[in-house]
Design goal:
heterodimer; A: alpha/beta; 5-stranded parallel β-sheet; 39% helix; B: alpha/beta; Rossmann fold; 4 helices; 8 strands; 26% helix
Chain lengths: 314, 192
């Protein structure tokens, strides 16, 4: 495979391959000099039409640790403001020698469109609309495996009970994570008020619950989604306080969790809304590990696409 | 890259068929004992010595050398392993993939690193290994121990300790395993 556009394309074998390879890049990141020459001479462009802290910097760090050159495109300071189209932008950057594009866009499907115009360059989906965010799902699966191994638990995701809590409807992270967790054999439960679930869940390999307390007591992994505060005007929940009271991981509710249950959050966190401040710093909250592992996972993805010369997944 | 990986990777892909056993288990054991003595003699003991096996073929040999040191001197030396895939010069020319996670158990600053590999061929793996080592520190010295030197060097690299010098044709393959060393060929058209 030339591009990483969705978890669905990757399949179980592809996910396993990325996670396996990530171990090597975690070791590289732990070296006194965390840099290898594997992608010398390659150029990775981050093409971000939406704001991002961790995804963009994580990809750029990953590319630099592989000795690739990086170019950053941020829409706010670009010729898009003069009316340049997406296609012309892609072709311009390709003409400058881009070997890979990491694309984030507010509209679903844009990475596929970029792949059609990229003239041989690889495309990685860095988040498209509400659709997919495959590298986030990969780093989350990796984080769960590694965190469980470090705690002396069986690292396999098969049979693990994962609760994904919050605004599933508007979340590309939720969509990619459902696919990835399910592909690795986990049992996924979505926990959200009906207004924050997609109108139709046909074909989703999930259970649905509206009761966080019952679900929490019997899950191995709690995945909290960011409450998208910019959507407050849509009145999807009566108030943030009510949302927190029913669906937030408050200090009181965190006590319902099993001793070895892990808490994940893709960031940026709204402390005090979906997650209490002291829960975020609990030893079983692996949120900073997610960020650290994210760099290694993205190194694995970039290496597979640009360096390995082998096939990635299906 | 040990020959083990080379032979499964294109353009070499195929199945290894042994034609001749060039070292049996006893010869292998004696060679390991002799190399252990040579390392001891050359370094006046084991002060600061660390064995680093190259993934994957060099790793079991490094462990056997460490065991030999225990038997000869009663001394334990640190044993590490190094996967050089990310430092290779043929990335992009053929499929390259890390086989195993590198493990360097002690800081290398001031250490005497003995790189251990099964077969020395073009020298390109060793070049990559030397580059990789510099990311972990500045060893006082780096030495190279190989079980088989089969010639055909493409870089100015030579081993310090050799189990057996074995003249080969380029298209032959050497397989070092626990029971000895075999010389043979890859048979194409069959998946391993």
């Amino acid at each position: 495979m030339k591009h990483l556009l969705s978890i669905a394309d990757l399949g179980t074998d592809g996910i396993e391959e990325v996670l396996h390879l990530t171990d090597s890049f975690v070791e590289v990141s732990a070296r006194p000099i965390p840099k290898v020459p594997a992608l010398r001479g390659k150029t990775v462009v981050s093409l971000f039409y939406e704001d991002s802290t961790r995804t963009r910097l994580s990809f750029e760090t990953a590319a630099k640790r592989l000795s690739a050159d990086t170019m950053t495109f941020t829409v706010g300071s670009s010729s898009v403001n003069k009316g340049e189209s997406l296609r012309d932008t892609v072709e311009t950057l390709r003409a400058m020698g881009a070997d890979a594009f990491v694309v984030r866009h507010g509209s679903a499907g844009v990475p596929w469109q970029v792949a059609a115009w990229s003239a041989g360059a690889s495309v990685v989906n860095g988040g498209d609309g509400w659709h997919e965010h495959p590298t986030q799902a990969l780093l989350d699966c990796y984080t769960v495996r590694r965190a469980r191994a470090e705690r002396g638990l069986d690292p396999a995701l098969a049979g693990l009970r994962v609760a994904i809590v919050g605004d599933v409807k508007h979340s590309r992270v939720a969509r990619s994570n459902v696919l990835a967790f399910a592909a690795l054999g986990a049992e996924v439960t979505l926990v959200a008020p009906p207004t924050l679930l997609p109108p139709d869940l046909t074909g989703w390999p999930v259970e649905v619950s509206h009761d966080l307390d019952t679900t929490l007591a019997k899950c191995d992994v709690v995945y909290l989604l960011r409450m998208q505060l910019e959507r407050q005007h849509e009145a999807l929940v009566p108030s943030l306080r009510e949302y927190t009271a029913r669906y937030g991981l408050t200090s009181g509710r965190a006590r319902l969790l099993a001793d070895d249950a892990l808490v994940l959050h893709p960031g940026p966190m709204n402390r005090g809304v979906e997650i209490a401040g002291d829960v975020a710093t609990h030893p079983n909250a692996v949120i900073t590990q997610q960020v650290a592992n994210g760099v290694a996972v993205r190194m694995a993805v970039l290496f597979l696409l640009l360096g390995a010369g082998g096939d990635l997944g299906g | 890259m040990a020959e083990r990986e080379r032979r499964t990777a294109p353009p070499y892909g195929g199945v290894f068929v042994a034609r001749k056993r060039v070292m049996d288990a006893d010869a292998l054991r004696r060679a390991i004992t002799r190399i252990a003595h040579e390392i001891l003699e050359r370094n006046n003991g084991l002060e600061g010595v660390i064995l680093v096996g190259l993934q994957t073929g060099g790793v079991p040999l490094a462990r056997r050398l460490a065991q030999a040191f225990v038997e000869i001197e009663g001394a334990e030396v640190p044993v590490g392993s190094l996967d050089v895939a990310l430092h290779r010069d043929d990335i992009g020319l053929r499929p390259v993939m890390p086989e195993a996670v590198t493990h360097i158990p002690v800081p290398l600053d001031g250490a005497i690193v003995v790189l251990v590999d099964d077969v020395l061929f073009t020298g390109r793996t060793i070049r990559a290994a030397l580059d990789a080592l510099t990311d972990y520190g500045r060893p006082r010295a780096v030495q190279l121990a190989v079980m088989v030197d089969r010639g055909h060097r493409e870089l100015p690299i030579r081993p310090d300790y050799v189990g057996r010098n074995l003249p080969t044709r380029r298209d032959e393959m050497v397989d070092v395993h626990d029971e000895g060393v075999d010389l043979g060929e890859m048979v194409k058209g069959v998946r391993p």
